[in-house]
């Protein structure tokens, strides 16, 4: 059985396969009680974001994960798609949203997982 970290790393690889860029896995398990890992990536278009989200949904069916229903309002378009998988939260963000929210800086106390890439 795969660990949560292994699943987060596989999701990061899957996102890169879908041409997501600057993909990071951040261990924040010691900083909160509601999730263990962030997988953060930059996407260049709404179509790419939707394609990667579909790949993630296909992945979770075979890996004992489920999407937690979230209410999402995005008046500015598709700049940020958050996929809550419980122990893993995936953030697919436009470059502008990623630069603005800077999750890596916000969660700087987390541990950046070396993906050996």
Write the topology of this structure:
Elements: H1 4-17, E1 21-27, E2 37-42, H2 46-61, E3 80-84, E4 88-93, H3 95-101, H4 103-106, E5 111-112
Parallel strand pairs: 2-4
Antiparallel strand pairs: 1-2, 1-5, 3-4
Question: In a nutshell, what does this entry contain?
Answer:
The protein has 117 residues and is of the alpha+beta class. The protein has 4 helices and 5 strands; from the N terminus they run αββαββααβ.
What do these coordinates show?
35% of the residues lie in helices and 22% in strands. With 117 residues, it is of the alpha+beta class. The chain has a five-stranded mixed sheet. A hairpin with a 3-residue loop joins strand 3 and strand 4. The longest helix is centred in the middle third of the chain and has 16 residues, at 46-61. The radius of gyration is 13 Å and the shape is globular. The mean pLDDT is 90.
Main β sheet profile: 5 strands, mixed
Q: How far apart are the first and last residues' alpha carbons, in Å?
A: 24 Å
- Spatial arrangement of strands, main beta sheet: 3-4-2-1-5
Rg from Cα: 13 Å
Envelope shape: globular
Task: Tag the structure with descriptive keywords.
single chain; 117 residues; alpha+beta; five-stranded mixed sheet; 35% helix; globular
């Amino acid at each position: 059985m795969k660990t949560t970290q292994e699943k987060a790393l596989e999701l990061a690889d899957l996102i890169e396969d879908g041409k997501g860029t600057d993909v990071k896995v951040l261990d924040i398990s010691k900083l909160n009680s509601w999730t263990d890992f962030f997988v953060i990536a930059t996407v260049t278009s709404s179509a790419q974001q939707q394609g990667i989200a579909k790949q993630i949904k296909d992945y979770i069916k075979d890996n004992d994960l489920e999407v937690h229903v979230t209410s999402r309002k995005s008046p500015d378009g598709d700049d940020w798609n958050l996929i809550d998988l419980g122990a893993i939260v995936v953030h697919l963000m436009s470059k502008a949203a990623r630069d603005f929210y800077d999750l890596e800086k916000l969660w700087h106390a987390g541990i950046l997982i070396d993906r050996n890439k």
